From TrEMBL:
The Transglycosylase SLT domain, residue ranges: 153-190
InterPro entries: Lysozyme-like_dom_sf, SLT_2
Protein name: Membrane protein
Transmembrane segments: 20-39
Entry keyword set: Membrane, Transmembrane, Transmembrane helix
Source superkingdom: Bacteria
Coiled-coil intervals: none
Length: 232
């Protein structure tokens, strides 16, 4: 007759198991909560913000042929708000004119100057006695950046950064001046194509600028959130 196998006693009794479960629940909650707090603090660190912003911005701009430099966007926005011009239109002009200031020179073959390529007579004013033809003029260098001279001759140059000069080779002054010009040319009334055509009398130019404007406008709110959150 076969002997009955002796049943092994469980290592842990049901009562002890229950005790462990009750003991581990608050520990698990504490560990989870602590991990969550630590992660939130890490996310607030500058390095994490920079990495996250870079990844988000890269994803948003991946369809662009040239990414909009992050440092220029707050300037576009500020100038656009002041002159009631879409900041994305300013970005589009900057892209077309000097590829976001990365061209080998900021002086064109016909004499347009600076980041946004103003002819000297347009920047200082066509009422200047030396202005005619294409608008190169014979304007003294010190007069080209003098806000009082620009006001006197009805130019579009603006001292965007408040340093007492309106300089087409200064990025803020150039963008604010472009916003001033486009606004007066009709952009502030929603006549974007008319304003762009006034900037450069070429239908091909207008089509290029508007094409980039529409690309940038499609993601403008996302770019604003990312850039302005990291700026302030």
């Amino acid at each position: 007759m076969a002997k009955k196998k002796k049943q092994k006693k469980p290592l842990l009794s049901p009562g002890f198991k229950l005790f462990l479960i009750i003991l581990l629940i608050p520990i698990s909650i504490t560990v989870y909560y602590s991990s969550f707090i630590v992660w939130q603090q890490l996310k607030d660190l500058t390095i994490f913000k920079e990495v996250s912003t870079a990844l988000n911005e890269e994803d948003i701009q991946k369809e662009f042929d040239v990414e909009i430099p992050e440092e220029y966007i707050p300037i576009y926005i500020a100038a656009g708000e002041l002159y009631d011009v879409p900041w994305t239109l300013l970005a589009a002009h900057h892209r077309v004119e000097t590829r976001f200031s990365t061209t080998s020179t900021l002086i064109s073959p016909v004499g347009a100057e600076g980041h946004m390529q103003f002819m000297p007579c347009t920047f200082v004013g066509w009422k200047h006695p030396t202005c005619d033809g294409l608008g190169q003029g014979q304007i003294p260098e010190e007069d080209k950046t003098n806000p009082a001279i620009i006001k006197k001759f009805g130019g579009y140059g603006v001292d965007g950064d408040g340093d007492g000069k309106a300089d087409p080779f200064d990025i803020e002054d150039a963008i604010y001046s472009a916003a001033n010009y486009l606004s007066k040319a009709g952009a502030s009334d929603g006549k974007l194509r008319k304003a762009v055509f006034n900037y450069n009398h070429s239908d091909v130019y207008v089509d290029m600028v508007i094409s980039y404007y529409e690309q940038y406008e499609s993601v403008s709110s996302e770019l604003e959130k990312i850039v302005l959150n990291t700026t302030f």
